[in-house]
Structure formats: C-alpha cells, structure tokens
C-alpha cells in the first residue's frame, strides 16, 4: 500500500503571525487560505508549501472546534500528521484487520476534495494521525 506524508497540521492562535513566520523566516509559499465552516470543524486554514512539504496552519473559529479543544488541552503546536494513501477505504480496512480503530465521526470529504479520517491516537502514542486520499485526482 502506497503511503507518504501528505502534510503536517499545526494549531495556531494567530494565523497572520504564523503565515509570516512560515513564509518569511522559513521561505515557504502561501498556496491557499480559507475557512472551513462545516459543523464539527470550524477552522481557518492556511496551506504553506516549503519545498515539497506541506504545512496546514489551523486556527479555530469556534470554541467547540476540534482545534480549539486540542489547544485547550495541549496548547498550540503540531496537531496532526497526515499520510496520503492510494485508496482510503482500502487503507481503513487493512488497518482495521490489524486491530487499528478510527474516530468514525472524523470521516469526511473536505470542500477541496480530500477524503480523510483520523486514527484513534492511542495506537500512535498520542499522535493524531490522519489518513487521506484525493479521489478526484484518480479520474
């Protein structure tokens, strides 16, 4: 099964300040900035490319968003690491055969066409791990 790091999600309090750091200090390029208003997500995002790597800066837009809850518990910083797979459904099935469980309520397709789900972090030493694919790129 093909798998590679897709992006690293970083929880931030000030999106503009974070964008400035990642573009000015680290030489990244701001590729996209948008707000996800979907219930249970409520996050403003900035997508930064640094070389071939992708950073998603995540600022909560409500007190109940997963990013807000994360920051309340752990503070700002690395929120998750996302791994791109060829086929999300197949990857989920394979991992479940090996005893890995997922946070079923996180399975979704973003407005940008990425399908994703988060593994239960107890399998990864507390690291939030996202699996994702881009089915529209296969057509």
Automatic annotation (TrEMBL):
It holds the Pfam family Glyoxalase_4. Residues 4-134 form the VOC domain. It is an enzyme of class 5 (isomerase). One of its GO terms (molecular function) is methylmalonyl-CoA epimerase activity. Transmembrane segments: none annotated. Keywords: Isomerase, Metal-binding. It comes from the Bacteria. InterPro entries: Glyas_Bleomycin-R_OHBP_Dase (IPR029068), MeMalonyl-CoA_epimerase (IPR017515), MMCE/EMCE_epimerase (IPR051785), VOC_core (IPR037523). Its EC number is 5.1.99.1. CDD domains: MMCE. PANTHER family: METHYLMALONYL-COA EPIMERASE, METHYLMALONYL-COA EPIMERASE, MITOCHONDRIAL. Belongs to the methylmalonyl-CoA epimerase family. This is Methylmalonyl-CoA epimerase. The lineage of its organism: Bacteria, Bacillati, Bacillota, Bacilli, Bacillales. The gene is mce.
């Amino acid at each position: 099964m093909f798998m590679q790091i897709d992006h690293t999600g970083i929880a931030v309090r000030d999106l503009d300040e974070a964008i400035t750091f990642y573009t000015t200090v680290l030489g990244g390029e701001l590729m996209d900035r948008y707000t996800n208003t979907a219930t249970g997500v409520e996050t403003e995002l900035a997508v930064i490319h640094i070389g071939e790597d992708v950073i998603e800066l995540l600022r909560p837009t409500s007190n109940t968003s997963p990013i807000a809850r994360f920051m309340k518990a752990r503070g700002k910083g690395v929120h998750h690491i996302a791994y791109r797979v060829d086929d999300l459904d197949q990857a989920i099935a394979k991992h479940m055969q090996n005893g890995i469980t997922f946070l079923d309520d996180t399975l979704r397709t973003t407005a940008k066409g990425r399908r994703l789900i988060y593994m239960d972090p107890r399998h990864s030493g507390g690291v939030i791990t996202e699996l994702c694919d881009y089915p529209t790129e296969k057509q």
